[in-house]
Automatic annotation (TrEMBL):
SUPFAM superfamilies in UniProt: NTF2-like
Presence of the UniProt keyword Glycoprotein in the record: no
Listed Pfam families: SnoaL_2 (PF12680)
Keywords, in A-Z order: Isomerase
UniProt source species: Filimonas lacunae
Residue intervals of the SnoaL-like domain: 13-129
InterPro entries found in the cross-reference section: NTF2-like_dom_sf, SnoaL-like
GO MF entries: isomerase activity
Protein name per Swiss-Prot or TrEMBL: Ketosteroid isomerase-related protein
Lineage: Bacteria, Pseudomonadati, Bacteroidota, Chitinophagia, Chitinophagales
Length: 145
């Protein structure tokens, strides 16, 4: 891959993560293409379109208002349509309810440090797909569940 394109795609993804940390929901949604989606793989939840993506992301904003993503590795492949694989950890303190398909986990006030992998497909500067692989067994264990 052309190094210049790799830098551009990495910058787009880093900007997306910054918007997530800032909890700027309208700007996060704006990063997605019209047909883009967010897939929380382990929960088997796919959020399509701005309203659904906003709802899916807001769950984590509510539960972890101080969430921070520490980025470890970022790999880019492709040109016009790029795939960016990110190895990271999700860190923060559960200060609000975490709404999951099987129920609500009330605020535990506990810190989490959960290693994750996320795969983003981008085209024309927009996110086509955002696949999140979060090990919920580890997250729940860290919350004392």
């Amino acid at each position: 891959m052309d190094e210049r394109l790799s830098v551009i795609y990495k910058t787009l993804v880093k900007n997306f993560y910054r918007l997530l940390e800032d909890q700027n929901l309208p700007a996060v949604v704006e990063c997605f293409a019209e047909e883009g989606y967010f897939w929380d793989v382990e929960l088997s939840r796919r959020y399509r379109g701005g309203r659904e993506i906003a709802e899916g992301v807001a769950v984590y904003f509510t539960a972890f208002p101080n969430a921070h993503r520490e980025l470890y590795e970022m790999h880019v492949s492709g040109a016009h349509k790029a795939v960016v694989v990110v190895e990271l950890s999700l860190n923060g303190t559960q200060q609000g309810p975490l709404v999951l398909p099987w129920g609500i986990i009330e605020p535990a006030g506990k810190n989490i440090h959960v290693p994750c992998c996320e795969i983003l497909s981008l085209e024309d500067g927009k996110i086509i797909s955002y696949h999140c692989y979060i090990p919920y067994s580890m997250l729940l264990r860290q919350l004392g569940k």
